[in-house]
Amino acid sequence: MKIVVLDGYGANPGDLSWEGLSAFGSTVVYDRTSAAEVLARAADAEIVLTNKVVLHRREMEQLPRLRYIGVLATGYNVVDVEAARERGIIVTNVPAYSTESVAQMVFSHLLTVTNHTEHYAIENRRGRWSRSLDFCYWDTPLTELAGKTFGIVGLGHIGSRVAAIALAFGMRVKALTSKPADALPAGVGKADLMELLSTSDIVSLHCPLTDSTRHLVSRTTLQLMKPAAILINTGRGPLVDDADVAEALQSGRLAAYCADVLTEEPPKADCPLIGLPNAYLTPHIAWATREARIRLIDVAIDNVRAFVEQRPQNVV
User: Fold this and answer.
1) What is the mean pLDDT of residues 107-124?
2) Strand 172-176 relative to strand 188-190, pairing
3) Is the dihedral of CA 270, 263, 115, 250 positive or negative?
4) Is the bond into 272 cis (omega within 30 degrees of 0)?
5) Distance between CA atoms of 237 and 234, rounded to whole angstroms?
6) 129 CB neighbour count, 10 Å cutoff
7) β-pair partners for 203
8) Potential cystine with 236: which of 27, 98, 124, 209 (Cβ 3.0-4.6 Å)?
């Protein structure tokens, strides 16, 4: 059996191991694969693993031996699942491996805005505290989170974990969710989009990207938010309209935008959010802690094992 990993570098830049796959067949791991290279590299493979390399219907039609596609992520929009199903190709994903890491990144971003820890650490490496006339100094607003309202859009694994952490900070938590109000965790109130946006001091996006949630945050919905609000996106880039958010930041309609995801990744140099002092961007790394990546690879290998043993799991 031939196994091909099309783009293994993101999950494993060299500090982890793919060795577990070799128990199931001859394994080739590519760091990156362009669209033009997919067919040549996946030729004769029964099992293909992909993170961001797209597998359309046309690729599947030209890979007659392909029987299994393992997505090295939770989201599986890189695979034409309908085409795979028609051809009897099993498609799996890796659910919930990064819940703790993504929730942690949400609050890393939030605390960057409210406490500016890195700013002061850098200033003090340059000797600023040593030159201070007083025992302390500050040149940014410093904000206490307790008592603030934290709005969460989407209350799945990550949204629920974020809610628990927000409650631990002493914040009031509201959620836009399909779950009934009596099924929400203690301390979490149910709200519609208008109420959530208009009353929240912090809004964090954790919903799937669908036709109805694409550009959920745009010029119209930004008008509902408090000018002092902080918007956090660790979900999917296209949940927001980048240009509209940039305009809101520049005009004072939004205090800060914290994002680990953008509509286009990597972004072009002229992305309207890059360079704005109140746009805090990290390069899609919320999922990438060593602990989360170990879980990701372990589950991906276990998914392959289950397929080989004819008991497929995590099928999408």
Assistant:
1) 98
2) parallel
3) positive
4) no
5) 8
6) 14
7) 151, 231
8) 209
The alpha carbon of 60 is separated from its chain's Cα centroid by a whole number of angstroms, namely 27
Cα 110 from Cα 148, distance rounded (Å)? 12
Look at residue 189 and give its three-state secondary structure: strand
pLDDT digit string, tens, across residues 122-143: 999 999 999 999 999 999 999 9
Nearest CA to 313 among 159, 91, 126?
91
Catalytic residues: 236, 265, 284
**Contact call for residues 271 and 264 (beta carbons, < 8 A):** yes
Q: Which of 176, 171, 173, 181 is nearest to 155 (CA)?
A: 176
Tokens of 147: 């008592």
First to last CA, the chain: 23
CA pair distance 154, 203, nearest whole angstrom: 11
Q: What token pair was written down for 20? A: 């577990």
DSSP 235: S
Q: Residue 181: what residue type?
A: A
State which amino acid sits at residue 168: A
Cα dihedral across residues 276, 239, 258, 7: positive or negative: negative
Among 202, 205, 199, residue whose Cα is nearest residue 111: 202
Mean pLDDT for the chain?
A: 97
Could you read off the pLDDT of 22-48 as tens digits, one per residue?
Answer: 999 999 999 999 999 999 999 999 999
What HEC string does 38-88 produce?
HHHHHCCCCEEEECCCCECHHHHHCCCCCCEEEECCCCCCCECHHHHHHCC
